[in-house]
């Protein structure tokens, strides 16, 4: 009789994992589905018999002590499930699958305006999702009943069948049909949920939206998602923020931008202008000689920083307006003004910019 260790090509002190890997490697080469040669089939029987012995601690110990490799009686079919696990990479737990399963996460989008995004707000939202059936409280049975053991599989959730093959008798398992693999059956299903333990329902939920959120941010509400089958624990509800556009304010992370149209004389002489911010009216100091495109920053009037606290800035971009039409008196005054400054008609020169002001304005108003 061939030595089982030599048959698998392993040493006597090899670990169980080493023996398993050796068998899987040989089985892939010698399996009848891969190589139908009768001689190869005999070899497959030998390595299978060797693995059945060496993979079982008791049989291996008996074999090492010179006893029978079957421990007193041949029972080839009994250990075949372990052999198939080694060949197909199995090893997962068997038995009835649970009726109660965890529920899925849910996602809902809500729209907020810029003021709500800056200062935070509480919203009541209406969500339709799966909840525990109020009639059976998740059992799926009528009048407080419980599932009973399946008489076909005796609660195992699977049925077994013995078939003959080239390597002997093989025990195969498959999910039990009458109980769908649960190991139990519901004789009188709940009429409300049809035995599922959950129903669809619409519920109102209050969501606290923190200050500083922006489009794409998600708020996680633990346990407010879908209840699982059989009244299993609910998943989470994620509320995704969608920020609506403001009439005249443009957001750039924690900075707000706005455009201010200013007369030529006001820009030249300087002035104070009141604009409407998210906090209400705020004064903007315009220095004399302010050029078109000049940004004026107002500290702490921008967006709330979501994680770091504090506020960004409100940046006012000044646009100096040149009069498009002048009456005779205004035209004479402008000519007089030009004479006083020594300016001549047609005086102009090309000026290169450093990109700072231009890029800020372009970046703010082309998003």
TrEMBL record:
**InterPro entries associated with the record:** DnaJ, DnaJ_C, DnaJ_domain, DnaJ_domain_CS, HSP40/DnaJ_pept-bd, HSP_DnaJ_Cys-rich_dom, HSP_DnaJ_Cys-rich_dom_sf, J_dom_sf
Sorted keywords for this record are:
Chaperone, Cytoplasm, DNA replication, Metal-binding, Repeat, Stress response, Zinc, Zinc-finger
Coiled-coil residues are none
Which species expresses this protein natively?
A: freshwater metagenome
Q: Which GO terms describe its biological process?
A: DNA replication; protein refolding; response to heat
- State what protein this is by name: Unannotated protein
The protein's matches in Pfam families, at most eight in alphabetical order, are given as:
DnaJ (PF00226), DnaJ_C (PF01556), DnaJ_CXXCXGXG (PF00684)
Record-linked HAMAP family: DnaJ
